[in-house]
Design brief:
By secondary structure, this protein is mainly beta. It has one helix at residues 54-62, and strands at 15-20, 36-41, 45-50, 72-75.
């Protein structure tokens, strides 16, 4: 099945991501910049929201000495379902 991009036209423009780094990497205090907002950060984890492309995020974090690839990347998202539509051929009653 191919899902056309237009089906997701109500998705927020910003993407929230949780980046977890190896235990031996201590994350310095990171400031917001254009297209990147730091939601929270701890010793080994950053939660950020970005509207720029992924390369921009990697490049910006690299200026703070962080590796371009973290140990784990987690995304959180919600899906709203129109009750009148069946989803992938499954009705609400079958869910």
């Amino acid at each position: 099945m191919v899902i056309e991009k237009e089906e997701f036209d109500n998705v927020d423009e910003a993407t929230e991501v949780i980046l977890t780094y190896e235990d031996d990497i201590v994350i310095p205090k990171i400031a917001d910049t254009e297209g990147i907002k730091i939601i929270s950060q701890s010793e080994h984890q950053i939660v950020l929201e970005y509207t720029c492309d992924e390369k921009c995020v990697k490049d910006y974090l690299a200026t703070y000495g962080l590796p371009r690839t973290p140990k784990r990347i987690s995304f959180e998202f919600e899906v709203e379902i129109d009750e009148d539509d069946d989803i992938f051929g499954v009705t609400d009653e079958e869910l």
